[in-house]
Amino acid sequence: MAFSTGYFVNKELLVCHMRRISIVIVTYESSDTIAECLEALLTQNCEVIVVDNSSNDKTNEIVGNFSGVELIASPTNLGFNGGNQLGYEHATGGIINFLNPDTIPGPTYVSDLQGSFDKHPKAGIIGTRINDENGATVPICSTFPSLTSLIHEHTRFRKVTKKAYEHFRYAGWDRLDSRSVDAVCGASFSVRRNVLELIGGLDTNYFLYFEEYDLCKRVKAAGYDVFYDSSIQVIHKGGVSTGQLGSKYIENIYFQSRDRYIRKFHSFLFGLTFRLSLRLSRTLNWLAAVRNKII
Fold it and tell me: N or C: which terminus of the chain has fewer CB atoms within 10 Å of its end residue's CB?
């Protein structure tokens, strides 16, 4: 899929009458991508809200060139979930779509989303298909993280946890067909407003990462389905905003979110077993490094 750019030329108002969908886009240092994302939404029947997390580049200036887009400039970086929550609180639509600034939605993205919710009345959340810039479908969606899948990701014990990780990643599914899943990808997904209100909104204690697992888990616990619709597609450039931050900083945020998710949804024994696995793995890695030096 390819969509035109040229946002300084095309300045039509976003069609906002009879809005049923509000699109919330959280930006941080997104000047290289936000214009293409917003232009793809021009003339689509939606409300568009951009929450900027205290960018130092030209993101706000670029967003200001789009009439009909509401810009909320946060004086501090609220994180992904904090920004999304702020946007949701300002939104008026019955369906809230959370979209990354480095995505390019198709020309019928909004109407397709509405049609999918109409077709799946039990769905509280609907995620979309993600394609990379070359058109390849990205293997998104997963089951909820289990003890063994977390051990696989974070320790050296991958041989004994391989099957559990394959289950976690829905191995063998090409993502070309639609289905119910545990968790969708946070780059492009939508939630019914009444469902968000029922569960108390987003958990803003997640700055970044694991927030989609938290939300999907609470939505399913409330009795609603989480659905992946492969017929709705977006291009995702991926990692543009996080690439502006240091890798060590992002790593620490990831670990904090992971540990919060474990504490929130799992038992003390689950957490203890995971921490002991981490410690044992680090010890074995250290011993292997010492042995290699001696040899």
Answer: C
Contact status, residue 131 vs residue 233, Cβ threshold 8 Å = yes
Cα gap 130→187, rounded to integer Å: 8
Q: Which amino acid is at 185?
A: C
Residues 270, 254: Cα–Cα separation, whole Å: 19
Residues 6+ apart with CB under 8 A from 163: none
Burial of 122 (0-12, 13-18, 19+ CB in 10 A): exposed
Tell me which DSSP letter residue 135 carries: S
Tell me the one-letter amino acid at 36.
E
Residues 112/106, Cβ–Cβ less than 8 Å: yes
Which pLDDT score, from 0 to 100, does residue 11 have?
36
* CA pair distance 57, 122, nearest whole angstrom: 41
Ranges of residues in the chain with a pLDDT under 70 are 1-19, 239-246, 295
**All residues at 6 or more sequence positions from 227 whose CB lies less than 8 Å from its CB, including other chains:** 116, 120, 123, 125, 126, 127, 178, 179, 180, 181
* Structure tokens given for 154: 């974070």
Residue 148: both structure tokens together: 């063994």
- Find where tokens 């501090």 sit: 76
Q: How far is CA 43 from the centre of its chain?
A: 25
Enter the pTM of the model: 0.87
SS3 87: helix
Three-class secondary structure of residue 125 per DSSP: strand
Task: Kindly report the backbone phi and psi dihedral angles of residue 233, in degrees, each rounded to the nearest multiple of 5, phi listed first.
Answer: -125, 145
The predicted structure's pLDDT at residue 3: 36
